[in-house]
Amino acid sequence: MRVPIQAPAASVPAPTGTPVVALRGVTKRFPGVIANDNVTVEIRSGEVHVLLGENGAGKSTLVGMLAGLQQPDEGRIEIDGAPVSVTSPRQALAMGIGTVFQHSMLVPSLTVVDNFALGGPWWKRPDRTGIAARIVETAKRLGLRVDPYAHVNSLALGERQQVEILRALMRGSRCLILDEATAMLTPHEAIGLGELMRRLVAQGIAVIFITHKLNEAIAYGDRISVLRLGRNVGEIGPETLRGASDAENTERIIALMFGTSRTGEGSRREHTARVIGNTVLDVESLCSEAGRVPVRDVSFSVRSGEIFGIAGIDGNGQKELAEVLAGQSPRSAGSIRLMGREIGGASVGERRNGGLRYVTDDRLGEGTVGMFPVATNFLLKDIGAAPFWQRGIERPEQIRKQAERHVRDFDIRTPSTQTPVGKLSGGNIQKVLLARELTGAAQAVIFAKPTYGLDVNNIRATRKRISEAADAGKAVVLISTDLDELLELADRIAVIDRGSIRGIVDNGEGARDEIGRLMSAGDEK
Amino acid sequence: MALFTQAFIITLLLGAIAAGIPLLLAGLGEQLSEKAGVLNIGLEGMMLFGAYTGFLVAWASGSPSLGFLAGAGGGMVVASLMALLCVRLGLNQIVTGIALTLAAEGLTALLHFVQFSRTYPRLDGIAPLPIWPLSEIPFVGPVLFNTNAVFYLAIVLVAVFAWIYRQTHLGAALQAAGDKPAALDAAGVDVVRTRSMAVLVTGALAGLGGAYMSIAVAGVFVPFMSHGNGFIAIVLAMLARGRPLWVLGGALLFGGSLSLTTALQVAGVDMPTDVIQMLPFAMVMVVLLVAGRKAALPQALGESFVRGAR
Amino acid sequence: MTDQQAAATVAGQHAGGDDKGQGARASLRVVAVSIGPLIAALVIGGILLLAMGFNPVSYYGYVVQRAIFSPSGLEATLTRMGPLLLIAASLIVAFRAGIWNLGGDGQYLLAAVCVAATVPLTLNVLPIWANLLLGLLIGATVGAVWGLLPAILKAWQGINEIITTLMMSFLGVSLANVLVKLAFLDPATTTPQTRTLPVEARLPRLFDTSISSGLLIGLVAVIAVHLVMTRTSFGMRLRLVGANPRAAIHAGLSVSMLTIAVFAISAALAGLSGAVDILGTHGNVRADWNPAYSLTVVPLVFLARLNGFGSIAYVFLFSALTIGGESAARRIGVPSFFSLVIVAILLITLGLAEYLDKRHQERVRR
């Protein structure tokens, strides 16, 4: 049975007081942890309701239940006041709940039209012209421009998101859930999304906006529910939001989220004692064609004790740049010099031996082997080296001893050094990576999104490690999508956009604005 | 040595068609499975089992048509195991495929031994089905339009699949199942059901192809008679890049190389069978060398689908 | 998985403090998962036998008695293990490195033919022991060479090796046949076969028995492979490539070089298997002969979870089943294909058992 594509509900407001969607006393458990604990949230039409919380606060699980991916263990979901059971994504759609997930749910090899037609009766021909016409019309109504016959794999991430929002609307969704929707957008695109949300609620749709970014919650939300460790710890209504200033609202939210003020929020750590030495890493006119985004003419240099930040929206060549620097991708032009020696043609192993280290952001996909024990993962990049191997034969004692040392020094929580590393939490896997890369004769370290997906404590610990690495005289390249992090740690910050460096800013007064300006410059779509 | 006489070419074409039909049917089936995201290594087993059941029923009932139906059914039986173990339960597709092929090989050899090893019955083959008046066209007519019903069916299937893939919701669903099953699931379509159905149809087609080998081509069932045709069909499907027409072309090409022996004998060339038998496999290697990199496979091929897995 | 869920898993492990009492139950579960499928497969096989009109108990009884409990049968079983173990070693190296070398049959047969063609002739100029060494060397080399093409295609073009190795296998078997019939025919006999290596010049027997020393070679190969894979840096590099090729690149390994190395070793071992079989047991290669060990050993190494010692056990069982089955084919009338069926059923029952076990564990955790 197919969910019909219909025009979104016109401005028929729900009877006042009855929320379109409500979660009442919802609890969801996973092995060993309570993801959602007795959560009650009411979603009203005509409102942008923000679900705000740190990673791990339970937001995604809540969304999963509304979208039909999971069922609550306790409590109930109500639509228009009546309790319902959302047992599948198809049912969620039928009930008017449309979800735009963080990770695209579009089939890349099909066109936009075919994606929308997905799920139709098997033996019928998709009504391509009809659907295309409706796409264009609905898009116009929302102030968007979409080519219905474009293949999804040719669209930018921001455009794909627009397509998904469009699809949810065309399916008659009365409640639209946007899960971490701004993660992949430029600042300009994010503002566009905010305006789009306003147009949506003006047409009577209820919008649930999931985020962990405070400033977005305040900028785009009418109502904010704060989640912390699985509980709904407080709600800030429209009157309060509009009545107070941004700063006051921020304080209020921080109090709800953390109980105390957040560490390092926007303020810059003092590390005046750090001595900046000679140039360690020198990159000149580096180009590379490998990867999705070409690296174009990148030049910068980093000195000993310095933290060089690279800011930018995810997907603008950061990964490609890191991989060329590390030697995993070939360069097509330019030079990379480490301690004065050219390494642009050297292999990964040779660069590592020369003192270059690369902490990848893909912890389980690339940085470690989930099935191998923790002890082994420390040595993935040193296979065959003494004293862990002697004449090619393993020496388990030495391996174990080093592993125990690392576990102690880096505070890694693991049942044993033989536990498969895939069983550890994200934060501990990151510690394994750090232990591996930061010990030994490292001269220059490249960090790629090191605190991504970690909880507050681990974020703090990781940032401390980065700082300490610089204190110890290493040259640090810090690639991050978190501007606050860069402003806290870096000495200078470059902005990368579509593979080239738009500018390098000294950290300090006005740096945030300057960086924002650089990021949105030349961003006409 | 009259190599390019009419007799040689006609024999070659007829042989290419005869040998190509099983490849075409199995290849179309494998293409379907792979589109949906299932790498079906058990194809050889499905063909063999279809060859056996088809022969058995055709011999017992005297009707080749019933035999073909039975062959398709036999292939589906093996395919249903594949669907259960791999698609539904998520076991490793390659290992399961090998196990099913081995099981089919052993089982059919066993059953054949029990039933026919003493008697070795033969079938008469099937009657040709001329399409008048096209079969009267000189030179081309007797070759293309005077073959049997299975051939026509296979050609029709090429068109049918091409239509399904491009012009129906089913085609889009299949492509989604292979490219991004999560998206298909989110659209409310049962991914497991879609993939299972694809695998079952593959089994039916492969079984029919095998039955054709035993009923129409050889007239007898010999243990292990599929002799790598299933694996060649897998290569065909991988190289055909989702286009049924290319499967047809490849099937005729490899079928031609398989049937070269007979044609060469007609032309008076005496080449040992074994050398000829090497040709199709050698040809596959050459094709892979030249065009292998361009074999575009669906992203989710070989991975099982679990809803909600992060 | 999310940070939270991963933390949950670890927490769950910590919370299982009363695991000590579960120790007995845990080992019982391991036994059940390993032996259960075997019993299930035998039962299903027995039903099959019944359906075909044979008595399963007498069949199994005969096989066991013949293959294991009769001295000549046991010796035959152990001798047969030699080449099978070498194939197992070949597969373990490849599979652990993530490479599906399914071309063992072609590598085996071509090597066997080349050895059979050469060794009876060089016997005229070499002492027996040197001749045997030469034979082993030829076998390994021919095997390795036959694995070269799929290796290059995989390493430099990323072409799926399942297909290329299978094709090369069919090609190799046909080529071997051509060589026997056209190039290496023994002019002295009428049956199409290569020249025969006289019995005195074959691999020596062990002690007083008729067990070929090929068994020793096989055992050494499997154990060596196991130790290299689990204890050496080279083995770890291979396992890294097999477990996570991207991590291997990240760690600075040359994946293409390692891929070719793995192919070379795996194919060489398969070729060695052919050499051992000829030098130890058959002495020549008849036309249209193909024991097709490789594909049948694949399930065995999987059953053993790619563990060398487990493989020895499973190869022993399979060898017994085959030897007993061949004898049973003559005595009872159940053809030898039956062992193929048992192995295939066993693989499927094992897969099912693992699946059920995983489901059970997840349910217990909640």
SSE layout:
The complex is a heterotrimer of chains A (525), B (310) and C (366).
Chain A: E1 21-30, E2 33-43, E3 48-52, H1 59-66, E4 74-79, E5 82-84, H2 89-94, E6 97-100, H3 112-117, H4 128-141, H5 157-170, E7 175-179, H6 187-202, E8 206-211, H7 214-220, E9 223-228, E10 231-236, H8 238-243, H9 246-258, E11 279-288, E12 295-303, E13 307-311, H10 318-326, E14 333-338, E15 341-342, H11 348-353, E16 356-359, H12 363-367, H13 374-377, E17 389-390, E18 393-394, H14 396-409, H15 426-438, E19 444-448, H16 456-471, E20 475-480, H17 483-489, E21 492-497, E22 500-506, H18 511-520
Parallel strand pairs in A: 3-8, 3-9, 6-7, 7-8, 13-20, 13-21, 16-19, 19-20
Antiparallel strand pairs in A: 1-2, 1-4, 4-5, 9-10, 11-12, 11-14, 14-15, 17-18, 21-22
Helix pairs in contact in A: 4-5, 7-9, 15-16
Chain B: H1 6-35, H2 43-61, H3 64-88, H4 93-116, H5 141-144, H6 149-167, H7 169-179, H8 181-186, H9 191-217, H10 229-239, H11 244-258, H12 260-266, H13 273-291
Chain C: H1 3-15, H2 19-51, H3 56-69, H4 71-96, H5 104-122, H6 128-146, H7 148-157, H8 161-183, H9 214-231, H10 233-243, H11 245-250, H12 255-282, H13 293-303, H14 308-331, H15 338-365
Helix pairs in contact in C: 2-15, 3-4, 3-14, 4-9, 4-12, 4-13, 4-14, 5-6, 5-8, 5-12, 6-12, 7-8, 7-12, 9-10, 9-12, 9-14, 13-14, 13-15
Question: Overview of this structure, please?
Answer:
The complex is a heterotrimer of chains A (525), B (310) and C (366). Chain A is an alpha/beta fold. Chain A contains 18 helices and 22 strands. Chain A folds into three domains: 21-258, 3-Layer(aba) Sandwich (Rossmann fold); 269-355 and 442-525, 3-Layer(aba) Sandwich (Rossmann fold), CATH 3.40.50.300; 365-440, no CATH class. Chain A is globular and about 70 Å long. Chain B is mostly helical and 310 residues long. Chain B has a single domain (6-117, 127-294), classed as ABC transporter involved in vitamin B12 uptake, BtuC, CATH 1.10.3470. The mean pLDDT of chain B is 83. By secondary structure, chain C is mainly α. Chain C has a domain at 82-305. In chain C, helix 3 (56-69) packs across helix 4 (71-96), helix 4 runs parallel beside helix 9 (214-231) and helix 4 packs antiparallel against helix 12 (255-282). The two termini of chain C are 17 Å apart. Classes of the chains: A alpha/beta (525), B mainly alpha (310), C mainly alpha (366). The interface between B and C is large, with 47 and 49 residues.
